[in-house]
Amino acid sequence: MKIALFGYGKMGKEIEKIALERKNEIGLIVDMHNADSFSIDELKKCDAAIEFTTPDTAIANIYKCFNAGVPVVVGTTGWLKNWDEVAKVCKEKNQTLFWASNFSVGVNLFFQLNEQLARLMNPHKEYNVTMEEIHHVHKKDAPSGTGITLAEGVLKNMPGKTKWVNNITSKPEELELVSKRIDEVPGTHSVRYSSEVDYIEITHLAHSRKGFALGAVLAAEFVKGKKGIYGMKDLLNI
Ligand SMILES: NC(=O)c1ccc[n+]([C@@H]2O[C@H](COP(=O)([O-])OP(=O)(O)OC[C@H]3O[C@@H](n4cnc5c(N)ncnc54)[C@H](O)[C@@H]3O)[C@@H](O)[C@H]2O)c1
Fold first, then answer.
1. Check: CATH 3.40.50.720 for 2-103+210-236?
2. Ligand 1 contacts CB of residue 54 (under 6 A)
3. Which of 52, 76, 136 most suits a substitution to test ligand 1, by most atoms within 8 Å of the C-beta?
4. What is the pLDDT of residue 238?
């Protein structure tokens, strides 16, 4: 199939490699230099688009894909406060949007494990839960989209915690989600339960960006010819 790439940075280049390995074609590459001048006709010839740009540019790119009638797979994080509006436009225009805070298969299994662990820990009030995410120093948003998904997974299963905060906190109703930016770390997320007598930690550590890129290409192959809003649960059937 023919794929349009929005964003040709660290992720865009990795996605291109995997897409070509899987015998797909790259029909169009859009980055900051041609964002306002690329050919919409070239976009219309693509079976799907993959969008990994910046929090400030993602929504305009998504709308360009909707207007061109091309299903769009979005990995950009940091724009989700506008999710409801984008989802509404997608439905009104009968278009296709696939979004994931994290495209790696391992992380999506980790999301399930995180929710199960939170459910198990919930009755045991002697444990306090905290979270940490570590990424490379170039990352523009904090906390990470994956960190937010994990935090929401904990909040859903632990009614004693009412919201996450992106800093150290000692308020019992707040879930601490600390962000660290270190060197070139691709992405590490930890959820920790600590009591006076012991400590439980689950961690997902990405060795490279390859897992995210493969998931995004699989998602593009999945949305070809489909209408509606999808996520990793649909792709992985979990
Ligand atoms: N969901 C996931 O699994 C996942 C994984 C890794 C990264 N991300 C997210 O993906 C995004 C991109 O990450 P990256 O590491 O590739 O960033 P990057 O800074 O390396 O690349 C960003 C690219 O966006 C391009 N760009 C800027 N404005 C544009 C516009 N208006 N139209 C088209 N392209 C434009 C830039 O030219 C650049 O090529 C970030 O939001 C990051 O958090 C998500």
1. yes
2. yes
3. 52
4. 83
